[in-house]
Amino acid sequence: MIKKIFILILSLLLMLIMAGVCFKMAIKIHRHINRPKLFCTQAVISKLNGLPVQDGLEIFVASSLDRIFLNGKTLLKPSFSPSASISAARNDYESFQIVIDSPLKDQPGVFLQTSDFVNLKTGNKISRDNFTWGLVGFVQTLTPYYPVKFVGLWPDPLIPVKSYDVKAGTTQPFWLTVYIPESTPAGDYLATVRVKGLNFAVQKISVNLHVYDFTLPKEGHLKTAFDFYGFLTKYRYPQKDEESSEAWHARLDDINDKFMVNMLKHRMNPILNIDPTSQVELSSIDRYRALGLNNFAIGKHGGTFENNWPKDDPSIEEFSTTYQTYGEDLKLNHLLDYTYVYTWDEGEIGNPLVPKIASMIHRAYPGLKNMVCYHGFWDPAQNPDWGRDIDIWTFQIDDFNEAKMRQLQKMGMEMWMYISGPSGTNSPNLALDFDSIDYRIIPWICWKYDIRGFLYWCVNFWPTVDPFKSAKNTEWEQNGNGLLFYPGPDGPWDSIRAENFRDGMQDYEYIQILLNKLRILRAKGLEAKYKGYFDQSIKLLTMDDSIVKSMWDFTKDGDYLKSRRDAIALEIEKINALLRTL
Fold this sequence. Notes:
The protein contains 13 helices and 24 strands. By secondary structure, the protein is of the alpha/beta class.
């Protein structure tokens, strides 16, 4: 009897164990089935495209929007080819990737050698000095709270190298960027990239470049506000042995300046928060303005500083003289139109402290603009006086409500949006583990909804973690949120995200140039005569559902997005040719 009971208990235990195992397997299978997949391996794609195989390795070209992993997989359907074909305006940057896949053996000492671009018809050249390349580095991600296609080593940092050892069984991308100088004549150019290594013969990649006959302005039309935490650089650039404190701080100042110059190179305005009464800080603005700065914050209180305003009315009013002086100095230096006060950041809409501060700033100097950031929108019907002194309303992208936004726009309020931590709603984000097109689509979304500015909280948040080794740079379960540039030995190293965001900002300028051409034709009274030009241009400038359907639904087809940009460019050239005949 005891033996039978023992066998029965043992059987029940085994059944429970098996049930538990089956349950875990079911959960695992469910998660596996419902997890978005990476696209097929590059080897399959390369065979389909007939890409050449030489010395046991494949070398081919990929788009700047292709996110290529070490196993050769991509996030979306890739654009692989044996040669590069790119187009750009003057004062424009255009990037692509050269990818090396070596399945069988190590490839030591790989490096790239670029030539000048030459117009074979005219002999005009673009110097190879405008053609740069670097290694695509990989950063370890963690499993976040939002859905991702992959957890592991993600491609992101762009690392300057003289050569690199490509390991067997890996797929290694290299990033190449061409800058088109403003003096470049339009036309078709050809360059060659020679790919060299110790174990294989030189392979040549042709690069065809079409230069459009127009120039992007240095100062862009879309305002941006990206904070740079200068106080964090000391963690990545510590004081050297036998380096004096004075020399160290001078080096940190120089490094911080390099980061901000590089931000402007990527069409990201540093928030700055300058003191307009400081000649040192004011003089830096002149230099940054020459590099494209179109917008910056003033003062040492507000959203950047965790809303560090006093709480009582008399103390708030004591700032009136300070902001009056700020306004007068900015007006005197012709900078007032380029500034804002980052008055408040997040918190509760309806906080009675906010209108007191905003009112004080307006009374101190009416030309100063109050900018606030909030989840959601102020409702004038519920609290009619609360937001009357707010000039710029910056909403979090996941709280977008077009009807409420239009209501505030009709009241004369300028609309900006901002992106913070990933939400899982499919809205674009600047975190590391998103499709590359997410970074580029942001300015297109701003254009669709008449959003005049874009804010991001930080580009260099790296206080405790080595950003080259771990993407967990914050206390939250996110990857690379608040980090768009990496700390190189002497200054910033770029990221795939920063490069693609700049591409989107450049796309935005194509849109603005075409829009301005239509205004010129209209001012000459030629709208009816050249109706075909207007119809085609308006069609191209309309962000229909095929480009952006909503904040959470937009194209993932990089080739399609680029084709719209190129169509806009061709229309600009057509109208330019027409205007030259008038």
